[in-house]
Write a structure and sequence with these properties.
Radius of gyration: 14 Å
Largest sheet: 4 strands, mixed
CATH topology: Trna Endonuclease, Chain: A, domain 1
Strand content: 15-25%
Strand order of the largest sheet: 3-4-6-7
Helix content: 40-55%
Shape: globular
CATH architecture: 3-Layer(aba) Sandwich
Length: about 140
């Protein structure tokens, strides 16, 4: 990871609309590219820590919780459900080395770039981490 991360430029209104118009799988794929490029993810935090979604129905063998993450601050802000929820940046290394293993240990899922109504792709944190590491490695090989 580079010592000084370049901040992602704010999404233009049309880019934000395009991201929101994608289906959950396409948004999750775009998210991987953005995380690899900008080396950070965005979550929502409140006074208790990271905000998690309670799932209406948990997949087989999983608990009914998912950590939502976004590739850009604006998308996280749009999904905030209250005054106490604010977007918080998460460095990619911390996501890969600390947070995803903690989520997996708890039996939770990851929700990739959900919209304000909670529509995002649910993913196993180990699988997501492996795919993200691969995307990050590819991006750095090309750079």
């Amino acid at each position: 990871m580079s010592d000084a991360l370049a901040a992602a430029p704010p999404l233009k209104p049309q880019e934000l609309d395009q991201a929101l118009a994608m289906d959950p799988a396409a948004r999750a794929e775009w998210m991987l590219e953005e995380l690899a490029r900008w080396e950070q993810a965005w979550g929502l935090a409140n006074a208790d820590g990271w905000v998690v979604f309670e799932l209406a129905q948990a997949p087989e063998g999983k608990k009914p919780w998912a950590l939502p993450l976004w590739p850009r601050q604006e998308l996280a802000a749009l999904a905030s459900r209250g005054e106490g929820e604010t977007p918080l940046a998460l460095p990619l290394e911390e996501l890969l080395e600390t947070l995803l293993p903690q989520i997996a240990e708890r039996g939770w899922l990851l929700c990739s770039s959900p919209t304000a109504d909670g529509q995002g792709l649910l993913q196993d944190p180990h699988s997501f981490g492996a795919i993200l590491q691969e995307a990050w490695d590819e991006y750095n090989d090309e750079a």
